[in-house]
Amino acid sequence: MLVLGIETTCDETAAAVVERRADGSGRLLSNIVRSQTDEHAPFGGVVPEIAARAHVDVLDGIIAAAMNEAGVAFASLSGVAAAAGPGLIGGVIVGLTTAKAIALVHGTPLIAVNHLEAHALTPRLTDSVEFPYCLFLASGGHTQIVAVLGVGNYVRLGTTVDDAIGEAFDKIAKMLGLPYPGGPQVERAAEAGDPNRFAFPRPMLGRQDANFSLSGLKTAVRNEAGKLTPLDPQDINDLCAGFQAAVLESVADRLGAGLRLFKERFGPPKALVAAGGAAANQAIRRMLREVAAKVQTTLIVPPPALCTDNGAMIAWAGAERLALGLTDTMDTAPRARWLLDANATAPAKFANTRAGF
Ligand code: KG4
Ligand code: ZN
Known about the structure:
five-stranded mixed beta sheet; 10 strands; binds 5'-O-[(R)-(carboxyoxy)(hydroxy)phosphoryl]adenosine; binds zinc ion; EC 2.3.1.234; iron; acyltransferase; metal-binding
């Protein structure tokens, strides 16, 4: 089974072709990603309209490159998958409409993929992980702990009540005058800093639930930075080190709670899987290894190119759905918001906040 996947929900324009064999294993035939970082850098964050226009400009070429590299003709595809949300709606419309056009012209089944589901299923492409497993998704837009029980069967065990982890790294970077995107910059500065110079709070520590919160920590960093202004390079390194240390301790605790909830409800997970851009952080990876070892489960982190947004994950999720006969019709709508777990509700007292429950 050969599936083309298209990703345009945020600031990467991506297309890929994957093969799914009858035994459920997968093979990547091509994976083309064009990041829009340069277009957004002057604004210190993703500008939705600039993102949508850039997708329109380059998507055709990216798809052609993915098909060429795979050596596959459109007529040989078993399915065309596009991320139909959640994401910036302009970009989602570009990708989904393009997939519909290809599907119509070639009489190929369409699969409208949830971007979060694609992150969730990636370790089955890279490592053939069996269900059920525990997913830690930490990207610029999402921080979630999810029980992955089967294709289309997800239970959210925890979520952020304010900022996503990547978002918090980006905001700290901006606050301290480091360039965009901020995650890698904060990580690098933290390596040269003293994590103990500032006593930053460890949000949510010890709570029974598995939710995250980072806005209080962010405010604490802002307050310390304000007192020290103008900041010298060592101040910046120390603030980053203190911030990252607090994130690590909080996230380790929250994951411990999530894994406990997982075990109570579904038995021991087959693996702890990390995905999303923040999983590229080496200190976060070390912490994840410790958390997994503590509960005697295997840690699986897909290679960085498949952790951050890409077309292969969309193609693979499309293939997994197609194998179960789950295809979509031409009237499928693009979605800015789309919960992975349809039964998930906002954590108590946070129902009215802007976090993406
Ligand atoms: O998954 P991703 O590529 O895109 C989505 O948000 O969907 O994640 C990007 C996010 C950004 O917020 C970026 O700052 C963060 O992941 N990130 C990192 C690191 N590399 C990327 N955060 C912390 N440390 C890093 N090394
Ligand atoms: Zn993503």
